[in-house]
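Data follows
____________
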Amino acid sequence: MSRQSGMQIPWLDPSLMFPDPNSASSEPDGLLAIGGDLSLDRLKAAYRQGIFPFYQTDPPESPVLWWSPAFRAVLFVGHLHISRSLKRQLRKKHFRVSMNLDFGGVIQGCASRPQTWITPKMRAAYTALHRQGLAHSIEVWEDAHLVGGLYGVSLGRIFFAESMFSRRANASKIAMVYLQGELKRRGYPIVDCQLQNPHLERMGVTEIPRKNFLNILQGHVDAAGPSEPWFDPRLELELSA
């Protein structure tokens, strides 16, 4: 088991209490706690504190790992990089975009990628969050075929993006463009992308220290959001961002 300063990474008890996110391990970076379950209350408690789960798939009975990395990948709403070629693709309107129309199809598409961490338990947990109105999906369609999308969790005015997939070029980017438009309309400051990678970096995602991320979280996770339903496809997409 990983250690930090001679201390073992704690196992969670049946309560919903998590360790202080700032006490997370430095090696591996951000490992905070082990065990517990993926109940709705525990997931909500985790996200409210800037903690996210990662479920190992080998072996399948591995415990849940809970993370709070030293640097957090975030997209500041309004700072998504939209290339000229992507703008042209969006203006052609070849793809149709919807929200919360096929959450199951989106999470299945994300789980179908090689070496996925989205186990059946994870799918069940986030589907339950979706039924409570806390997890959302954006779908990208080519005719009647689901060709890309993303899903994540919304608490207050923070969107925690979980995963995305593409079966056509740029399909996941198109989903992110529409997500940013919706979050900008609703007054969200950031999208939490958890961990940086080259694909996210090219889209404008940046890394900020854990302390900064937690400060943003504290200021917005309890904020009241607009009462209207998520995503009105009649709204004209803004491509100036």
The chain has two domains: 8-69, 73-220. The domain at 73-220 is CATH 3.40.630.70 (Aminopeptidase).
